[in-house]
Amino acid sequence: MSRVTGRRTAVYATSTTEWYTRIRDDERSPPPPPPAVAVMTRGPIIATDGLLLKSLLFACCSLLQLQATAPPLPAAFVSSATNVTDTVPVRRWPLEILTAVIMPADPEYPTSLSKVMPVLEIAVRDLYTKGVLRETDVTFKFVQRDDKCEDIEALRSSFELNVNGHVDLFLGPTCDYGVDLVARMIKFWNAPLLTTGAIANDFSSNKQDPKSKYFLLVRTGLLDFQDVADMVVNVLQKYSWKHVLLVYEIEGYSKVSGKQSCSLMTKTLVESFKGEAGIQYDAFDLSKNPQNNLTENLRIEASNKYSSKRFITYSF
Predict the structure, then answer these.
(1) What residue stretches are annotated with the Receptor ligand binding region domain (predicted)?
(2) Contact present, 239 and 232 (Cβ < 8 Å)
(3) Who is most buried in 36, 54, 97, 182, counting CB within 10 A?
(4) pTM over 0.70
C-alpha cells in the first residue's frame, strides 16, 4: 500500500509484529516483487507459481480418481459445506460404519441382543468372504444398548449414541412404541433404521416420501398386523361369515412387539372390518372378568350374543 507525497512515495509493508516504512525516490526503478507464495486460509488457495499450480491440479485429479473408484460415504462423512469457507472433513480409510443396535437384552424376546449380536458378526464376515466389501475399505462398529422394550429408553439410547458420535445406521428398536419414537427422528439425523419389529398398522403407511413421519424406516419382518387382518377378512369372505367376536388381552403377547401388542392387533382388525360391508364384530377384553379363565369367558360371551348363529372367534 502506497501514499504519494510530492516527489517521494511512502511505501508501507506489513508483518505480524510491526509496521515498517521505507522511503525511496520516484526516479529509482522499483524493487523486484517478492516471490509468490501459497497461503492456505479458510477460503480458497492463493497461488501464482506455475509449478505449484501444476502440483495442485495433479492432486485434485488424483482425488477425483480416488473418489470415482471409492464406495459412497456414509452420512457421517458427507460435508454440509455450502461455500468455500466451510470446513470439509478429511476422508480416512477404512471407512467405519457406526451401527447402533438397540433392542432388549432379555432373551425371552424373539429379537434380543444375545441372539442378534453373533448374527451380525457372522454377516460381516460373510460380506468380506464373498467380496461384497473389503475390510481394508469398510469396517463396522456395533454399539449395543438395552432398551428393555421401553419407548423412552429406546429414545434416550438413540440420542445418547448420536450425540457421542454420529450414527450411520440403526438396527432396532424392535418394540413398536420404541420404533415409533426413534423412527420420527432418524430423518433429521439422516440415518436409516432397520427393524424386524414395527408390525403395527401405522407403520404400513408410505415411507418413501421424505415428508412422511417414518421416512428412512425399513421393516425386514415377514408379517405385520395388517397382513394378518387381510388374511382374516379373506377367510370370512370365503366362508360368508358375517359375525366376529374378538377376545383379547391388552398386554397379551408383550414379548412379540412390546406393550399392548394384542390391543394394537385388535385395532387393526377393527379397521379392516369397518371397510368390509356386512361384517359385524364385537370385542371383549379378558381383563374385565379376570376371575374367569378363557373358556368360561368365551362360553358367556358366545352364548349371550351368538347362540344359534355362526361365529368365528380369534383370541389375542
Answers:
(1) 116-251
(2) no
(3) 182
(4) no
